[in-house]
Amino acid sequence: MSSNKPNPIMQALAAAFSTKIQKREDAFYEPRQQSYYCVSSDDDWVAAGSGESPPKDESQPPVHPTKIRLISWNIDILVPFAEERMSAALDHLYDVVSSTEPESAIIIFFQEMGVSDMEQIRDSAWVKQRFNLTDIDSRNWLSPHYGTTTLLDRRLYIDSVFRVPWYSKFDRDGLFVDIVLHNQAHPDGPQKTMRLCNTHLESLVADPPVRPIQMTAAKQYLHHDSVSSAILAGDLNAIQPFDRTLHEDNNLNDAYLLIGGEGAGPGEEDSDNGYTWGYQVPQAMRDRFGCSRMDKIFFTGSLSPINFQRIGMGVKAAEEHRQMMTEAGELDWVSDHYGVMCDFVLTAGGQLVEQKHEGE
């Protein structure tokens, strides 16, 4: 049977659900700059700009100037056995990363991270070898219980990291990263920027709707004059009719709808090929809510998607943990969500720039 022990995260969400959103002062919704973290020569996570440049990973080839792989995955924070599930999720992602063309830059968006998830990420050997992190703990989250984090290929030249709080009762925000690009078409022209946004939009149904307000807030950052290309991805909680046009309403492209179908053709709504939620939940929840395409990848500007697929399908906790989970009345899936992944190429002369390393 499931444990009757109170879940503080569930209690906090339940309390938020029963209240109305309180609009904060305008200053609350302004961007909040934050550090990102790299691994030092002593194998410790240190804030970038702390005076120590990360040592270069000689096992990795130079980054391809135009190839990017973007992965996004929500790892359910509301069910028990967080460490067992996150361990299996990281093992699965290691396989995905290892099978990626070595020259391609890899970026991983996580949503619904808890404190133990962050500990496992920062202690993971393959993460230390391949990535910088936007967060190593919960200090930049709006909620004390959960939040987002982004893993950035350590070869990328990171210009800045900032968060923008959304109008939200569940402490949701946008985690933005600006990546420096070389302007190959106009070498003497202004610097190009690729802007990334990792987000977890408002859950459930609200009246009036909240997710359109959040996407409108994101729009101004994705279409900024200094940004030549942008990607927004995450758990967009797309469960209502208006969610189907949020990309069009904000002048964005939906990668799945463009190339997520058979043979890289257009993807279709209301399709088993596109759903990311509903298959790895208790049957009662599936009977009540059905399946949906909650998780999406939007983009704009000088980017071209070339491959889209889902990840995490059928991934479960390690075999030695499953009986314990079953006896506790829990499913043994890593998450109730599938992840989404898209390969992009930069166009219009934009090229990735290698991060400088110690000794260079």
TrEMBL record:
Location(s) in or outside the cell: Nucleus, PML body
Record keywords: DNA damage, DNA repair, Hydrolase, Magnesium, Metal-binding, Nuclease, Nucleus
Organism per entry: Alternaria tenuissima
Domain Endonuclease/exonuclease/phosphatase: from-to ranges: 71-337
GO annotation terms (biological process): double-strand break repair
UniProt main location, coarse: nucleus
GO cellular component: a single term: cytoplasm
Gene3D superfamilies, sorted: Endonuclease/exonuclease/phosphatase (3.60.10.10)
InterPro entries to which the protein is assigned, alphabetical: Endo/exonu/phosph_ase_sf (IPR036691), Endo/exonuclease/phosphatase (IPR005135), TDP2-like (IPR051547)
PANTHER family noted in UniProt: TRAF AND TNF RECEPTOR-ASSOCIATED PROTEIN, TYROSYL-DNA PHOSPHODIESTERASE 2
Required cofactor(s): Mn(2+); Mg(2+)
Protein name per its UniProtKB record: Endonuclease/exonuclease/phosphatase domain-containing protein
Recorded GO MF terms: 5'-tyrosyl-DNA phosphodiesterase activity; metal ion binding; nuclease activity; single-stranded DNA binding
Top-rank taxon: Eukaryota
